[in-house]
Design brief:
eight-stranded mixed β-sheet, alpha/beta, seven-stranded mixed β-sheet, 34% helix
Length: 341
């Protein structure tokens, strides 16, 4: 019987494989998609994520991020990271760096998906192969979560993400979050001549229709070439009834996701991967449920609170002016999310 199967080859799955290999666990990873994986996301790594990746020996190329800037019309508020810079990194660059590290430690990666998963008393049967543990890191709409009956009812309010890159020199070392009535636009420098723009919205309009809500931002891209297609993701809000079923643990977006509003996806995935492997090494998979709650509590509380508040029109309009008037409070909130999980 093999020790561990990781299902899913995104950052959460690759990080789980790296943590497991470092602990001497015999790990196999299944990922059905070939090549370098991309995803519609903001592509900004918080300082905590940069530190966690460095601890794994992973140092993806990108642009230093000094903090977060909120912008609404002529008003803005900035908060610098106190624990060192974050990093804007193309998702494909991050994936290649993690995959290279996994290959270097000798993890077996198979180009396949699971078809059948059966829980046994002290093991899991995946497509006829027996593993002591399985980590499902198979994304927002996790087939493993659904197969195990761990999906929880979704929120009636659904938000979606769209992302496009532009061939233009970055004009700032901050992640800019532009606020409009129906959307937020996240601007992240990810390479010397590439800027990523991610939209978060509950509306069903196109990327260009959303961009038109931000005239000053849109004007920066007049005559500027987009690189690659618009990518989309969502609905973002996903809930799980539990993160553990027998010897199966859910890591990353598979374990539930509130919203991309605060940009912590990779940092959270790394923290969850580390906690899951620690529980497996200690032979106590059930412990991961509580460890997951501990690792994600700060994110869930702050993100859910901000999301709920900004769904109210008057509060949304006052958010940036309030951050401008109360810079210490704004900086404290940004740095609470920026520090390691």
């Amino acid at each position: 019987m093999k020790d561990l199967l990781v299902i899913g080859g995104g950052p959460a799955g690759l990080a789980t494989a790296l943590y497991a290999a470092r602990e001497g666990v015999d790990v196999t990873l299944w990922e059905q998609r070939a090549g370098t994986l991309d995803k519609a996301c903001g592509e900004g790594l918080m300082p905590g994520a940069v530190a966690a990746l460095a601890d794994l020996g992973v140092d993806p190329l990108g642009e230093d991020l000094l903090g977060i800037r909120y912008i609404a019309g002529e008003r803005s508020a900035s908060a610098s990271f106190r624990s060192g810079p974050g990093r804007g990194v193309r998702r494909t660059t991050l994936h290649r760096a993690l995959r290279t590290a996994v290959d270097e430690v000798g993890v077996v990666v198979e180009a396949r998906s699971f078809r059948d998963l059966r829980l046994e008393k002290q093991s899991v049967l995946a497509d006829g192969q027996r593993f002591r543990y399985v980590v499902a890191a198979d994304g927002l709409h996790s087939p493993v979560r659904r197969r195990l009956g761990l999906d929880a009812p979704r929120s009636t309010r659904r938000r979606y993400g769209l992302r496009r890159h532009y061939r233009i020199a970055p004009w700032t070392s901050y992640v800019e979050v532009h606020w409009a009535e129906l959307a937020e636009a996240y601007v992240t420098p990810v390479a010397p001549e590439v800027v990523g723009v991610a939209m978060l919205t509950a509306g069903g309009a196109s990327f260009d229709e959303h961009l038109a809500q931000f005239p000053a931002l849109a004007s920066r891209f007049d005559g500027v070439a987009a690189t690659g297609p618009v990518m989309g993701a969502g609905p973002l809000r996903q809930r799980a009834r539990a993160r553990v079923a027998g010897q199966v643990l859910l890591v990353g977006d598979a374990g539930g996701y509130v919203d991309a509003l605060t940009g912590e996806g990779v940092a959270l995935a790394l923290a969850q991967a580390r906690a899951a492997v620690a529980a497996i090494v200690d032979g106590d998979p059930a412990r991961y449920e509580q460890d997951w709650h501990s690792a994600t509590r700060r994110y869930r509380l702050l993100t859910a609170s901000l999301l709920a508040a900004t769904q109210l029109g008057p509060v949304r309009h006052l958010l940036v002016p309030a951050a401008e008037r109360l810079p210490g409070v704004f900086a404290a909130g940004v740095n609470a999310l920026a520090r390691p999980a």
